[in-house]
Design brief:
By secondary structure, the chain is of the alpha/beta class. The strands form three sheets. A six-stranded mixed β-sheet has the order 7-8-10-11-12-9, sandwiched between helices. It has a five-stranded mixed β-sheet with strand order 2-6-5-4-13, sandwiched between helices. It has a two-stranded antiparallel ribbon with strand order 1-3. The longest helix has 16 residues. The model has no long low-confidence stretch (mean pLDDT 97).
């Protein structure tokens, strides 16, 4: 068994589940910080925060895999007083690589929204929208998922199911047409998905953030929108990537340890 792998080998494994080709051009998926070329122990988190960096240091993790990038735009200066800059500087100080699988995972065929669909045990799951296709016509990047509930249910009961299934702090919803059977999903800030959801005949949309006007428009479209919070609709990233990476490393006979962050929590609270 290999007791360590290169940064490129690690990226290659991650990109089996979150291919960079699926990411949007504006995104910064991939290495945001690369301090060294030997990887032995990986911590998986949704976001890079000071507590997560401290957890990595205490546990001897040399690499952190996050969903959200810590760097989105080119930086000409780094200032300790700036929150994002201080995270990058701390990662460098402790020699910790930061790899981010953002829209590379969001838009993967079996990425974020496919995983969410499995949690709700939806049937006949397919992409909500196809963003790109290969030369053979097979989708290479998708936006959202849509599938069918085993049995229709009232919108209020469905909202309660969303809160329970995601273990969400809070769920705000619109009643739609009153009954839910076909469900669209787009984790994170996916309120705009009400339009493609309406086009495919979805009765409900599960997402993390919805603007006021989109709640209004969803009511007009007759869609039961369930806003469950950005964090709570995307925290499946941790468990899924942990499981996928550990299984793949075992198959490749790489003795690389992968763990989920035990201290990460939503950056907000509900009362």
């Amino acid at each position: 068994m290999k007791d360590s792998i290169t940064a490129a080998e690690f990226a290659g494994v991650v990109e089996q589940f979150a291919p960079l080709a699926a990411a949007y051009d504006w995104d910064n998926s991939g290495y945001n910080v690369c301090c060294h070329d030997r990887i032995q122990k990986v911590l998986v988190a949704l976001d890079l925060t000071m507590p997560v960096l401290a957890e990595a240091k205490a546990g001897g993790y040399d690499t952190i895999l996050t969903h959200h990038p810590v760097l989105f735009h080119a930086a000409k200066q780094l200032w300790q007083a700036r929150p994002v800059d201080s995270l990058v500087m701390q990662a460098i100080r402790q020699g910790c690589n930061i790899y981010c699988a953002h829209t590379s995972f969001d838009c993967a065929l079996q990425g974020m929204n496919w995983v969410l669909a499995q949690k709700f045990e939806l049937r006949a799951v397919r992409p909500l929208q196809v963003e790109a296709r290969g030369t053979d016509g097979v989708p290479t990047a998708v936006l959202g998922s849509v599938g069918e509930l085993a049995e229709p249910m009232p919108a209020m009961d469905f909202a309660a199911l969303v809160k329970r299934t995601l273990d969400a702090q809070d769920v705000r919803y619109t009643p739609g047409k009153g009954s839910v059977s076909r469900v669209a999903l787009l984790g994170g800030a996916g309120g705009e998905a009400i339009y493609p959801a309406a086009e495919v005949g979805a009765d409900a949309l599960i997402t993390g953030e919805v603007k006021h006007n989109l709640f209004r428009e969803a009511a007009q479209l007759g869609i039961a929108v369930c806003e469950a919070g950005h964090y709570d609709t995307e925290k499946v990233f941790r468990t899924h990537l942990h499981m996928c990476l550990q299984k793949e490393f075992f198959a490749l006979q790489y003795n690389i340890k992968v763990e989920e962050s035990e201290i990460e929590a939503a950056p907000y609270r509900a009362v």
